[in-house]
Design goal:
Layout lengths: L15 H9 L5 H5 L5 E5 L12 E8 L4 E4 L5 E8 L4 E7 L3 H5 L5 E9 L4 E9 L7 E5 L8 H13 L10 H7 L4 H9 L4 H32 L10 H9 L7 H15 L5 E6 L5 H14 L3 E5 L3 H14 L7 E4 L5 H12 L5 E4 L2 H4 L3 E2 L2 E7 L6 H5 L2 E2 L5 E6 L5 H7 L4 E5 L10 E6 L3 H13 L3 E5 L9 H17 L5 E4 L5 H12 L5 E4 L12 E6 L7 H8 L10 E6 L4 H8 L3 H11 L7 H6 L12 H18 L6 H10 L4
Parallel strand pairs: 5-7, 9-16, 9-17, 10-12, 10-14, 11-12, 13-15, 14-16, 18-23, 19-21, 19-22, 20-21, 22-23
Antiparallel strand pairs: 1-8, 2-4, 2-6, 3-4, 4-5, 6-7
The structure holds adenosine-5'-diphosphate and magnesium ion.
Magnesium ion binds next to helix 10.
Length: 669
Amino acid sequence: MVILIKSLEEIDGIGVKTAELFHKLGIFDVYDLIYYYPKRYEILKRSNMSLVADQERVVVDGIVECQPTMVSLSFKLKKVLFRIFDGRGIYHVVAFNHSYLCKQLHSGMKVIVIGKYDQMRNTIVASEVRLGELCDKVQIEAVYGTTEGLNRKIIRRAIHFSLKSGLEVEDYIPDYLISQYHFPTKLWSISQIHFPVDSVSYRKARQRLKYEELFLYLMKINYFRMCLCQDTHAIQREFDELKLNSFIETLDFSLTADQEKALEEIKDDLISDRRMNRLLQGDVGSGKTIVAFLASYINFLSGYQTALMVPTEILANQHYDNACKLFKNTDMQIAILTSSISRKNKEKILNQIGNGEIDLVIGTQSLIQEKVEYANLGLIITDEQHRFGVNQRNELKNKGSFPDILSMSATPIPRTYALTIYGDMDVSNIRVKPAGRKEVITYCKCEDDMFEVLEMMKKEIDLGHQIYVIAPSIEKGNSDELNNVLYIKEKMQIAFGKICRVEAVHGKLGNEEKNIIMKQFEDGRISILISTTVIEVGVNVPNASMIVIFQSNLFGLSTLHQLRGRVGRGTIQSYCILISKDKCERLQMLEKSNDGFFISEYDFKCRGEGDLFGVRQSGEAFFKIADIRKDFDLLVRVKSDVDDFFNCHFGDVKYQKFWDCLAKLNGLN
Ligand code: ADP
Ligand code: MG
């Protein structure tokens, strides 16, 4: 009889304690468990012991040749020793911290030993010892992310149990497509991901799951698009164009053709009765910000509030300062809302937002995290849009109608891509930068060239210019990040400490400290600023003429290009120095080109490192199995299937579960 289970504790061998360990991995019920896909696979195939090299991973099966013995190395560390005979030779086996083996194993038993072979001692240092023998077929075994106290064996067993318990999984590929592509069932596919029979089945299963994942994702995009088109709550604005134009005349530069075109497109959206969901993309320094501010001005002239959301506090401050300067001769009221302003101040601002006194509010996450209530929010602008997910944007509380959305991104996306992953958005491009800019000169250097790099830095310092130094940002919570930045700071201090001020910003600093340092860098009181990629987005210091990026081979080209955009913002000649261990061909592309669109196309063609496609992966969609970069061809196919499905079957009760699922997402609606 099949027993339907749901909670982890219903699985044989899992109690409260083990269940808690599973929670640490984000697994709370059997569904989380079966969707906990392996990190990688190991091949379990009998090693040819006559060919293995020293320290190579080996898989040996045979019989235990003598009764195991245990040696205590310390109170905690014990090792079990025995010998195994594989029909040809005898090997010593040593297993650390597997004391139970001592009782379990007896001479004559069949076992499989997996471990590293120490040729000198003819010893296998075992990572795993199992009872049984290898079959002749190659076995593929899943390897999972684990946590202390929870090894892969337990995870594997729990998944196996769940898959066999007869649970049902919802299938989100329409029946006719399943037959068209001869897709296997979903449950079978999931079980192949965990317990592949062979590589053919595995690939077939994976393709099916990828397809479904992309299918649902693109359904969501299509659905958002449709909601926006049908949205009858959109704001139709009226405003005095003369006021806009005379304001534009007060700017100390004239807009470039691309900026004008983008502004026209935004203006049309704002006037129309369709809700705007527009992506404004352009290289760093191409002048997106002014376009966004002008959009907020139009919104203000028509009587609505604007919220500008940015990913970092530094950027919020910078935009705030710029907006105050820009709008100082207008009636537009501007406020900043970040986590570091005082409680009292915050309350006052929240009040003013609620009663409509504030026209433009600039802030970080706090714009959505706190219960900010707007009197009449008409426009949401997000800078570096990929840092915010659709869901977050939905958290904005608004009295009255639904706001228009303008997203800005400095990571240009090739057109074909934009059409798929940004299919729910209209796109405006700023391709040509304002005139009069000097191109940043880029050099690729090896770590051995460090002396030369320091000399180049010295030259800039002597000219009174400033320098950014970037160390790779490693995952949050990883203390290496700190070490890297601090280590480099120490070295730079030794080299330049006598002639100028060297400071560092990194994730471990408080917001206030960070802001102070940034402010001092902006004011020119700090000459060399060392940081992780926090400055990646939006910082504007025209006197900075050089950016030195360590371990640049760890970054995608698009990220490097964006970092490079921190310099060359004024009229002085600027430089970008990419340091890597060895000469790296990929990086040399940046010596040749300064065009973000071109670079992103190249990133795309190589489908290498690029983080370009992390874009939507980070905030909005998390793909468990598909990779929108590597699976691009599949993505294009799924896109056309989804379009057909929408055109032919939208609302069809036969596919009710699809529409229910989308309604649950409830995206922007
Ligand atoms: P990004 O696209 O990276 O956000 P910014 O909006 O920060 O670029 O613009 C970079 C700099 O260029 C700013 O100092 C801005 O004032 C200036 N700028 C913007 N548009 C023009 C223009 N049409 N002519 C001259 N300078 C401009
Ligand atoms: Mg910007």
